[in-house]
Amino acid sequence: MMEISAKLVKELREKTGAGMMSCKKALTECNGDMNQAIAWLRQKSMISTITNRIAAEGLIESYIHTGGKVGVLVEVNCETDFVSRSLEFQILAKNIAMQIAACPNIEYVNITDIPVEVVDKEKKIEMGRDDLANKPENIKAKIIQGRIEKRLKEMSLMNQPYIRDQNITVEELVKQSISKFGENIQVCRFVRFLLGEKIEK
To answer: What number of other Cβ atoms are within 10 A of residue 193's Cβ?
Structure first.
């Protein structure tokens, strides 16, 4: 039987919010395969229910980029005032604000927040591209689907590689924080200001 390292257990816990013993059991059952272990935890209903809990506390964080040409306001929610006042939570909110400042293409928190009409518009753009004209229909459909998924990810904050650690996404950063604080944490909304963007020149 494969030896399951503490590091692997910790990684699975950070990704799922499940308990340490559940994570170890899942990894043991799945020979250390991370994706299979996540699926195993889901099947056994061991994925933490933390993310279903109401997060009504938190804070609104701001970030002004050097030079004062880009500014961000972001609302990050948690469950208790105790966590919202902690330095670690404030650092998390600041890092998320900096992430938004660094990503000019993002418009939504999650892909699920993107309106149907925006998705339809992206589909029309992709379907009209010249490089697809001579492709068979089944190949064309796959290419279009792949391009749309890529575009929607580019528009979503949670799907961005985290600026301080490119090996994880913002979503994984938030999951790690959920595991650390033991509370539901949600990025609720954000506004990104670019100097002069509403002024006709």
So the answer is: 15
Q: Strand ranges (DSSP E) for 79-183?
A: 161-162, 165-169
Residues 84, 106: Cα–Cα separation, whole Å: 25
Residue 86 to residues 116, 169, 186, Cα–Cα distance (Å):
38, 23, 16
Query: 19-31 pLDDT, tens per residue?
Result: 777 888 889 989 8
**Structure tokens of 27?**
């990894």
* CA dist., res. 98 & res. 73, Å (int): 10
Token output for 8: 């692997």
| Structure confidence by residue, pLDDT tens digits, 117-129 | 988 888 888 777 7
> Could you give the CA distance from residue 46 to residue 73 in angstroms, rounded to a whole number?
35
The tokens describing 144, both together, are 């279009």
Q: Are 76 and 69 in contact (CB under 8 A)?
A: no
The CA distance from 67 to 45, in Å, is 49
Element (H, E) at 69: none
